[in-house]
From TrEMBL:
Enzyme Commission identifier(s): 6.2.1.44
Species of provenance: Pseudooceanicola nanhaiensis
Gene Ontology molecular function: ligase activity
Residues in coiled coil: none
GO biological process, one term: fatty acid metabolic process
UniProt protein name: 3-methylmercaptopropionyl-CoA ligase
Amino acid sequence: MGWLADETGLERNAANHVPLTPLSNLTRAARIWPDRLAVVYGPHRKTYREYLERVTRLASALEKLGVRPGDVVATMIPNLPPQVEAHFGVPACGAVLNAINTRLDPDTVAYILDHGGAKVIMADPQFLPTVAEAIERMEGPAPVIIEVPDDHAGVHGHGHHQSYEDLLATGDPDFAWILPEDEWESIALNYTSGTTGRPKGVVYHHRGAHLNAMGQVLSWRMVLYPRYMTIVPLFHCNGWCHAWMIPLLGGTVVCLRDIAAKPMFDAIADEGVTHFGGAPIVLNMLVNAKETERRDFDQTVEVFTAGAPPAPATLRAIEPMGFNVTQVYGLTETYGPATECTWDDDVWGALTGDDRAAIKARQGVAMPAYEHITVMQAEDMAQVPMDGATQGEIMIRGNGVMKGYYKNAAATEEAFAGGYFHSGDIAIQHPDGYVQIQDRAKDIIISGGENISSVEVESVLMGHPDVLLCAVVAKPDEKWGEVPCAFVELKDGREGDADALIAYARERLAGFKTPKRVVFEELPKTSTGKIQKFELRQKARTL
């Protein structure tokens, strides 16, 4: 099907078919822009020529340590240059990068090291105690430890292990990269931040990493020489593939160790940052920053936000500050963003205030690496009516979907049932095809037989001037089965009034959707800024 009648002599060959890989993005950039600034972190300012040499030395040094194609190399490093370099250097020796969440406990890290079979782990001194304890708990062979000091931040090496810079010194700058022979070869192994049971190992292939990186250039409307600030942790879906993406345009990666308002504003003002990605909590940091933390800047900063639907109140507040926010949505299983709320100025250009923010809070339509993203009923894979009301599950098909779960064929088969990846996210679909999340399946509150979207209630509460963050979960109730319970983190200097907040919500929501209990406290969060609702659900059961 689709072949010419006679294709003799039209076979694939080395001249017309090369496996897709994001690794070629860096070698190309070093040829075109050898002297352009590639990676910045305080005094660390490397050109593409220097960046390529460091990556090549890393690949060579790992091979000298005994790392072979298909082996796993782990990292526990903040958003620093060595973590950026590992995204190219580890696969350049044929290995698979396993960037581990730096906030995990030793027991989970031990499981990941055992399950993934890491041969080497490169770790920041801050996390070496966790790594050491994890290795003690491992059942299999321990990985070689490479210490990655951060002298700029005062996080100095302990001297008990070979340092990262000493490792690079052993590498050959002329080492020939081991590129994939098949674009289906694995490039990265990421573990989900599941709240029940052991995390699952999500495997990425070179093809998907390349196409996701390439597609986001289009989605983000990027032109040459962007200056990208690393807010999304590089261990989280490989930083949404952004380390692989930036060399496509000769851009600069601006690294930040600590995610706080002042260093973000400083980077935007001093380094000319044009792009960053982050969860809505990051937007709240900027909106609620003290005057002493803020800096003036001339450029418009393009922001991808994901992790939870941003409250319209947050979007309404941040855009006048010089930020243009695009809502994206995805999962570890989709290399990060899979949908984007593409703005149609012809249709929505006249909208302002809440009306504009409400559109921007949608998760949107498929990004370029995806064939089809829609909302279906999981039971029979039937498309739900695109009426902006009927709920179903977001289903995803395309080159940006993982290979599967490592050593877990049953979970992989279940996730891909019916020829689509099952996201587990409950959504509606508007007549224009735009998807809008209502909730995670486990976060829907069922009260007296009625479904309540925690996202809808949270969006209302976030509009209150005293509220910094909030999360709404189900609280068991003898009469209704479940009722909404709101956990609220207040802005500095504000005092909580539960009755007033409930009255505020009742003016804007149906009675059964109004929180029946409000608790004021700091909310538990993951390293990517997601609120850990499973902890709050457990707490709500005891109230």
